[in-house]
Amino acid sequence: MFQVFQYQPLRLITQNSLSSMCLKLMLSRPVAFAQIWKSWFSSHSLLGKKNIILMGPPGAGKTTTGRIVGQKLDCPVIDIDDDVLETAWNMSVSEKLQDVGYEEFLEEEGKALLKFSASGSVISLSGSNPMHAAGMQHIKKNGIVVYLDVPTTVIMSRLKSKQMDRIVGLSPGISLKDVLQFRKQFYKRWFDIRVLCGGDVAAEVVAEKVLDAVKRYQDSELETFISTRSSRSGKSKEEDSNKLYFSDVVIQGLALDGGLFVPERGLPKFTAEEWRGLIEATYVERAQVILERCIHPADIPASKLAEIIETTYGENFNCSKVAPVRHLAGNQFLLELFHGPTASFKDFALQLMPHLFAYCIPRSCNYLILVATSGDTGSAVLDGFSRLHNTDKQRIALVNFFPEDGVSPIQKSQMIGCQKENAWSVGVKSDFDFCQTAIKQIFTNSDFTGFLTVEYGTALAAANSINWARLLPQIVYHASAYLDLIHQGIISFGSPVDICIPTGNFGNMLAAFYAKMMGIPIRKCICASNENNVLTEFIRTGVYDLRGRKLISSFSPAVDILKSSNLERYLHLIANEDGQLVTQLFNQLENQGHFQLQKDLLGKLQQDLVAGWCSNEDCLAAIHSVYSTTGYILDTHTAVAKVVADRLQDRTCPIIISSTAHYSKFAPAILRALRIAEINQNPLSQLHLLSSYSALPPIHWGLLETLKRTGNGDHRVCAADMSVLMSHIETLIQNHFM
């Protein structure tokens, strides 16, 4: 239960009396003195002359928590209501509110805050202080603002039990819930750190969380990144001193040794109570909380991150729930990930990542983003980077390489239609694996990258799922899906679920596994492949074998992949971050076309993952069957996952199937699955025909508009040759930046 502590006046110790006490203790009990001195020094070095400023709604426990934090730090504790406002006004806060009214009260409260100053203290704000901009700017200059984020339902229950009805802003016709919701915008504007506080968390626990959060805020050294191919034990002093942080890995994309970046200390863990506190939250709120824990405020301040997330998911998606969970049949649920502007799950990362990238890069250099796509990434990354502010577009450009004959007609039309003044598409006469491998080789070609920097002042960066900023936002929707099932009354927190994902490059699957590591009770991650089933065979046997394998064109082109880049991150994790082993495995794959896991690693892998694959025929049959029984049309990738889920689930818990794209993107295959005899080859005509079915979900809102814009749009096409690709890159840099 939430605890209320009796107020104890602060005991002030003079410097002389403190010195006398220390001397006596040092002489009589030297070990005890050393321990106390170490604790005191740690606490005071944490605070220094800065204030810890506790902010949150009325009933959040700011006063109680502040007193406990002050006791732990042995520093002054100041409650704005009791020690500042009531002293200045010579009346209670509730009397002042009744006397002057809502608007005048806020102004008087702000004036009092502007006259107030303190240092090295713990300060508990009133619930309405953050609504006065000048007052908050003044007090924040010398403090770290900690937002005690308590679920609205908990706050309402607490205020009701205390019979507090004199709340600033509360009036006839305006409910307490409306007041609390209105205030959130001000709390989000001012805080530096968020501390999640559930309903049954004791004030002592909240105080410890506040101290931990302040320590994290002040020490970004703890949140560094390493390559999947680096050796911890073999690190040189030079490597150890060249630490990489979130902003560094967003810019660099791929490690210099060819590996992928991962957090050195792993991902943050959420308690069950913290997850429960997000059940009532919106998708935007969940994203803010999760990503704040994964991105240090020294890289991107919480207020800026909140602004980016709000823009991304609050404006660019056509569904208010952003990533809704829909019941399909039995114990199967669909996680709809196609409500973004380009109709695929790639929008979740690629609407967000460009803004993260633009914030992190230095202003003194131009950047060209290189992307390889098997389909959906192309239009998503083009659209995302084209939405940057004009000033950012002048210094950030993008080129998207895709297999010219390896994507659907609508996907190609999208990639052509999404080209803008800073974003271009180049078709390559090869498959996705060549495109992806070529980009990796370009990044590790120091002669070429150095030439571009010296000659044109331009650096290269990556936006594929090899970039950590691409992977991170995907964790959010897997966690959100689980919370939505709780909100819908399907499960309670702690009940397991299975996840089934159409899998090619392993990024989406890895994000689900990361959500599991952060505390979401996912039981099994089911990988669903099409006829390019290298991953399925690997998960079943431990042998990753590309010898004699040729890419097969399928109805689900986004998973027509033989080399799964993000698998490297997963293997690094289960191999206890053994960079030498990961290097050995992937060097062998590159040079010999295969590798085999040790028996113990295969055992670990099979505890987490199961896998199956689906033929083209079974994919189309599943689309027809689901439409016939439910009126819902699956896209071809979701159909692959549906087939594999039917085969592998044991029906003892719900299974969430990731619906990774809208069926409109694969109209010819869908029309064939629905057994339409004559199919017009014009993509726009195909979509109009599909819309006549009045199926669920309806035709995608943005797709028709993009295809209308495409018309006879043009794009570059080049041979599958490294020198040709590098020549294209240089030409694009000359045209855009020079």
From TrEMBL:
The keyword Cell cycle does not apply. SUPFAM superfamilies: P-loop containing nucleoside triphosphate hydrolases, Tryptophan synthase beta subunit-like PLP-dependent enzymes. The keyword Glycoprotein does not apply. GO terms for molecular function: pyridoxal phosphate binding. It comes from the Eukaryota. GO terms for cellular component: cytoplasm. This is THNS1 protein. It comes from Loxia curvirostra. The gene is Thnsl1.
